[in-house]
Amino acid sequence: MKIPVGFLYLAVSGYGIYWAHHMLTRRHTNSYVAYWYVDLLLGAVILAIGAILRWTRWQERTRWLPVLGSALVAAYYVGASVVTLRRYLAGKISATVPQLGLALLPVLLVLILFSVALFEKLCPDLIDPPHF
């Protein structure tokens, strides 16, 4: 279970770094929402560091990094989904319900990832049982 979860952390952090970089450098963002992307970038970098360190001897001392990183990434995605749903209900976004569901699918993935990171921090023996 240790290897697939680590690759999931790396995949989400890679996408988070890409998306934050894209939004900060290529789009015109005002200062009102720019801190969201800095939060996403910081969380994705912390998540990547935590994913890499989980395969090293420092795993026990850095087990909180995936929790912190996934919490920051989840904060971005939950905030972005609230804004998206408010705009959709106000009629500012024209999309079908399946399109909206597909756009909000990463939110579900990130919330699951945060739950796994929290579960892994609080109950590590259930994720990776000790070898006898």
Quickly list its features.
elongated, 6 helices, 132 residues
In short:
With 132 residues, the chain is an all-alpha fold. It has one domain.
Question: Helices and strands in order, then pairings?
Answer:
Elements: H1 2-25, H2 31-53, H3 65-89, H4 97-103, H5 105-122, H6 124-127
Helix pairs in contact: 1-2, 2-3, 3-5
Q: State the end-to-end distance.
A: 17 Å
Biggest β-sheet, characterized?
A: none
Q: What is the general shape?
A: elongated
Subunit organisation of the chains: single chain
Number of helices: 6
Mean pLDDT: 84
Fraction of residues in β-strands = under 5%
Structural class: mainly alpha
| Helix/strand order, N-terminal first | HHHHHH
Radius of gyration (CA) equals 16 Å
Per DSSP E runs of 2 or more residues, the count of β-strands stands at 0
Low-confidence stretches: none
Q: What's the domain count? A: 1
Helix percentage = over 70%
